[in-house]
Amino acid sequence: HVLSGGVLAMDETPIKAGRKGPGKMHQGYFWPLYGESDEICFTFSPSRGGAHIERTLAGRFHGVLLTDGYAAYERYAAGQPQIIHAQCWSHMRRQFERALDSDPAAREALEQIAALYDREQSIRARGLHGEDKRQARQEQCAALVRDFWQWCDAQLQRMDLEPRHPLLKALGYVRERQSALAVFLEHPDVPIDTNHLERGLRPIPMGRRNWLFCWSEVGAEHVATIQTLLVTCRLQGVDPTTYLIDVLQRVGMHPAARVEELTPRCWKTRFADAPLRSDVEP
């Protein structure tokens, strides 16, 4: 269901999983997918290679793929005519934050990006959708985006920026990604950033501090399944404890052909009003 929508956000975050040698663990990655219906699906791969993107999406997703600036996403999307690649303004903004101490012009960039976010927030507050939202973005955001591109082009003409200068790196980041950063202007269902996905994947970096790692790659795959259910419960406004108590009892008698009815989004509409309870509950 996550892959059947028209907009998909995808990211990757590291996790130690599997033994690499005496006293060492292998660096694996969770790759969360965030769909249009506020569902998140964590997948696991032992590497950060683009092959996992191919295995996960090939032939299964058609629409707008929203990501950060990791080049593997761009390479994959470039060879898929059924996919439009959009990129995250929040990740781009961080490039200029890193340049703040190096050049005062970075603050000008942050102010222009802040003005764009203010317009986007105003549009969101009006509850606009579809063509109305696209038109509002064209009227209120498109000019700000064009002005920002022009400002970046002007800064790139400066002769005082050395190749390693943080501001020059930020400007180069923008120049290489202009078309992907502008996708949200024409596609009203595409968020301006991947912040919703980053909020959803937060249990993974929190886990690196709490449960530290996955002892095996099989364990990491199980963690991905568990976090898929728990995080999606929260996104759907479902109490995870109530959900798990019900589903762990119901799954043994539920038809396997209709297992999707036990996912949090479907369970919410079918069973949430009268969930099965535990005998040991007070």
Spell out the key features of this protein.
282 residues, alpha/beta, six-stranded mixed beta sheet, 14 helices, 6 strands, globular
Describe this structure in words.
The chain has 282 residues and is of the alpha/beta class. It has a domain at 89-180. It contains 14 helices and six strands. Strands 1, 2, 3, 4, 5 and 6 form a six-stranded mixed β-sheet that branches.
Summed up:
The protein is an alpha/beta fold and 282 residues long. It contains 14 helices and six strands. Helix content is 50%, strand content 14%.
Largest sheet: 6 strands, mixed
* Rounded average pLDDT: 95
Question: Based on helices, strands and strand pairing, what is the structural class?
Answer: alpha/beta
- What is the number of beta strands? 6
Rough shape? globular
What is the helical fraction, as a range of percent?
40-55%
What is the distance, rounded to the nearest whole angstrom, between the alpha carbons of the first and last residues? 36 Å
| Series of H and E elements | EEEEHEHEHHHHHHHHHHHH
Measured on Cα atoms, how large is the radius of gyration? 22 Å
Q: What is the overall number of helices?
A: 14
Low-confidence stretches: none
Strand content: 5-15%
